[in-house]
Every structure is written in C-alpha cells, then in structure tokens.
Amino acid sequence: MADPSSYRPKPGQIPDSPGVYRFRDEHRRVIYVGKAKSLRQRLASYFQDLANLHPRTRTMVTTAASVEWTVVGTEVEALQLEYSWIKEFDPRFNVKYRDDKSYPYLAVTMNEQFPRVQVMRGRKRKGVRYFGPYGHAWAIRDTVDLLLRVFPVRTCSAGVFKNAARTGRPCLLGYIDKCSAPCVERISPQGHRELAEEFCDFMAGRTGTYVRRLERQMAEASEAMEYERAARLRDDIEALRKAMEKNAVVLADATDADLIALAEDELEAAVQIFHVRGGRVRGQRGWVTDKVEEVTTGDLVESAVQQLYAEESGDAVPKEVLVPALPEPAEPVQEWLAGRRGAQVSLRVPQRGDKRALMETVQRNAQQALVLHKTKRASDLTTRSRALEEIAAALDLDSAPLRIECYDISHLQGDDVVASMVVFEDGLARKSEYRRFQIRGFAGQDDVRSMHEVITRRFRRYLAEKERTGEWAGEGAAESPAAAPAPVPSANGTGDLCEGGPGALTDEDGRPKRFAYPPQLVVVDGGRPQVAAAQRALDGLGIDDIAVCGLAKRLEEVWVPAEDDPVVLPRSSEGLYLLQRVRDEAHRFAITYQRTRRAKRFKSGPLDEVPGLGETRKQALIKHFGSVKRLRSATIDQICEVPGVGRKTAEVIVAAFAQAAPAAPAVNTATGEIIEDDEPVSTGTTDDRRGQEE
Questions:
Q1: Distance (Å, whole) CA 243 – CA 140
Q2: S-S: 461 plus which of 212, 515, 566, 669, CB 3.0-4.6 Å?
Q3: Poorest-confidence range of 110-124, 140-154, 316-330?
Q4: Which has more confidence, 185 or 236?
C-alpha cells in the first residue's frame, strides 16, 4: 500500500486545462485512466485525507505509485483519448463491460458486383449496408429465410458462386426459387442489384410499398384466373408480414434511436441497448460490469456510449440516443457523437410518451439481465464455497458459516414497523425458512431497538425449543410464510406469538414447527449500532456461539461487535458479494411485507373488528346487504338469511356492532357535505397471521 503523498505532484505542476491522466502502480502498469475538464482540480481530489475518499477510490490511490497526464485542447479530445487508453491498457480500476461479444449484423455487400446477404461481425466495411445488431445469428437467418421468397438475393459464399458459374448449375436455393441465380445469368447484374436495393429498402422500414404492390399483383392474377401465380403471391405476402411481425413498430414517424438503460447496485451494473430503426426494434444487446470505481449513473452511461459507438462507423450512430441519466457534463459526449455521425445527435432523457414507455421496457430488460447474472454467479458451487471461506477468514470464524440468517427493519415514517429474517444455507436462499415480524415492544421509529427486539424474540424461541427437546430441532421444520398456521399464545411464558401449540401443524416426526435450527452467522442490515444491538440481544440470552456482523449499505463495510473500525473486504471478494445478496434479499422481503401491511390497513373496514369472520363470509354479507350501514341495522334473523352464516355467527356480528362506537361521518372537503355510509365498501381481511412471527 503506497502513501499517495509520496507521489503527489505539486499543485503548480498540474495544468489547469482539459486532459487525460493515468495512475500507474509500482510495476509501471496503468491501473486507472480518467479525463478531466481541469486536470488540476480533478487530481487534487485524489490527494486528500484518505478517510474522506470512497473505499474503492482509496484502494486505487494507495495501489498507485505514480500519476501522469496529457493535456488536450478540448473535452471531446479528452473523451476520445480516454477511451483509446482504456482499450490499450485495460486498467483494473476502470469500468469494464463483460460479455461484450461481437454482435451479429445483417449485412448486404453493395460494394460487390453481385451483392450478397450474410451475417457479419466485427468492424464495419465501407460500401456494406448493415441492419441490426441482433442478439443471435439465428434471428438473422430466420428473417432472411422469410424474405428470400420475395427478394431472392444471393446468399452464397464466393467459392460456391464461382463453382456454380463454372459448372453452369446453381445451388439448391436457385432450384427452389430462393435465389435469382446470377451465377448462371438467370438475372442480369443490374437486375440483381435492384433486387438487393429493394431488400435493403424493406429492411430499412419502407415495407408498405412492396406489400401493396404484391397485393395488387395477386388481385390481377386472380382476375386473370392465374390461380397458381396468385397463390405464390399470397405466400409471398404472408412471408413479408411474418418478417414485419418480427420487427414490430414501437415508435411512430420512422424514428431512428438507440435506447440505453441501466440496472445497478453497489457492486455491479447491467446495460441494455435497444436499436430502433425506422420505428422498429432492429436489435438488442447488453453488458454487465463490475463497479470497481465510484461511478454515477451518468458515468456508466458515458462508458456505455463510448463502448457502443467508438468502434462503429458513422452510420451506426442514430439521430437520437435516449439514456436514463445524462453524463456530467453532457456537451462533450454529445459533440463527440455528432462528430462520429457527421450530423447532429440528440442525447437526452425521455420524459413522456412512447419513448418513455419503451425506455421502461428496456429498463426491465436490464433489471432481468442483472438478476440473471447474479443467479448464474450464485449457482456455481465452487464460487459459493470460496465465498463462505472468505467470510470465515474475514470474521475470524472457526469454520465456514453454512447457515446465515439476515435481519432487516422496514417502516414508513415510523408506521407499520416490521422486520424480516432470511436464511441462506450453503450460499443459497432457503425461502421456506424465511420469517417476518411485527415490532410490538414499542411504538415509533427506532431501528436499533427494533433489531434488539427481533433478535431477542427469534433466539428466545430457539432456546425454548432447545430446552423442550433437549437437542437441536430438525432442520427444515418450518413452512413458508404463505402456508404458516395461525399464531397462538406460546406456552413458554415468553409472551411471543408463535405458530405452535395444541392443534398446530407438525412435521412428520410430530414436532411443532418452530425457530429451532441455529445459524452460524447472523447478519444485520446496518452499521455499528445495529450490530451492537444484535450482540446485546444474544448476550442477554446467554448465547455465545453465534457470530454477528453487519453490512452498511452506503460503503459496503462489514462491521463486527466491539470493533471501532469495519472489516473492508476486497472489491472482487466473493464473500462480499454473498453478504450483499443476503442483505438485499432481507431488505426486499422486509419492504414487501411492510407494503402489504400498509395496503391492508388502508383497505380495512368495520367487519375486520368482528372476531372469527373470514373473507368469504364478509364478502357474502356485503353482497347480500349492499353496504355496512344496512348490515349494521339488520336483525339476527335477517343476517341468518345470508348463505353460510349461522345464528351464532349472526349474534357475534350484532354484538360486535353494538359494542363498537359509531364511526365519525366522512365529510366532502370540497362541499362540506356528509358522505353517507350507504355505498359498497372494501371489507379488508382478518387473516393477519402472516404478520406475526411466522
């Protein structure tokens, strides 16, 4: 670890002008390349107190042993030079997009005497018309196969073409009328070129002319009783329509645009690009990157734009590039794009309309790509084993934590405070073991007290079960939250609500389903205060064989009890990646439950106060009487007329309404009039068992 002050240049040595800088390590390898509008101001930001730097930036400047820079004339030149150096040196601390394979294009070689339709990858050639890119080569071949019925353009290689010309016999496609066979002079060079130009026009979106022309020819053939020719034209029209369906219109006015969307977390980001030409989605591509440095969404957009257009010809840059956030500043990037295209390019964030809706679709694709990437990474056994070993080494555990439980607190401004518990075993989520809690010990917002209460309740149950059985309860003894039985007061004197007790569902061995299986590691979502609260809860219960740590979301630091400084795992650590997945899953589970409870509270009605009244019978009562007001004034005999409602239930309903205080009338704030309670209302639900300790 180098001391940045040892190689810090003097402020007067750094020019106050645009440029590109490179950090090198002790072996002279370039580890980071950056650009700046002012080299002096930007480089000064790296040589400040290390405690003020982002952990990833701190790692970079302490790994570096020297810094050098190159002055350029404008920010656009800096952008171009930065990309060139990133390509040349492949710095370890720069954003690098993985899976950046060469995407296939549908190409028409208009620079040849007999243009050929084919799949092409790599750098674009002069005189070749390109369409795409496509996600897969088979998608191009499917489209071409449909269009060859109408546009029988040459698709064979140069060797096959020469061999057919030498023998005087066309290839198979020539015999089945999917090639006009210019190799044997069935069509003149000029006629074949016109056919290729029509193919290009159709692929460019000018489709209506050809379909209407074929329909007219089909009608003329039918009137002339040339039914075989009419049938062939009918099949050609159907082939064109199928090809058009593969490229459905998504934007009006024949728009040419590329839409770039991002899905990101603290460690990784996924980029998805939709290529729209002539109002149709012509291709899709995507990348995944590690966020090695501290970058914003605008920085990721800038890197994606560079990656996308730096190696392409000017005609690959569309009139519009739609992004989720603009780079800062955006003008150099926009000017660079205009220079690549040779005309003005609009770089902007769509705000409304069809483009905004399509951007949301691209965003969903990016999110799915990130989830898929994480799933593939997590499914690898070797990777999971290495992650668990790294966690054990970082936290100084005796063995790898095969069972990890993570807890998170969620609320909305202090209301509906809930907590979640998620379980990972051998590095994989075990959703049947997930649990959810309501915070009942106090009112209001206090994440530290909430964490203490949840940990106490969970492990008090564990101790009670251990004492009851005299041994560890069987693994996998719990049900999923959706299938959990209704909670009943526990018999262990703790005051907790639990799903055990007489008549509760049991496992095959007859044991009630309880929190009986202990983890080797407890992870809490938060920093030092939450970790300390969890440790106090375990200490108060006399548990000393379960490790505790916390993961702070802002800087991804791992906190352990009684330590003043956090454990900083390497950015590339699989252990950090696993802890982040566990933490994020706990957050997702908690916030989903909190939103469910909030929605349920908003939809609750007077019938929710009636004990023992299920959802089906509530709906039947409202349907029969039409409103709660009419039900409240009904007699016991009238309520008994509702199917499924007996006299005892009717008496309970009447008694509940009699004991309940009349609700204050609702008032229309605009008119001041009282709103009558004579309209159908939502009945809510009484099935709140999923909100207890599951």
A1: 10
A2: 515
A3: 140-154
A4: 185
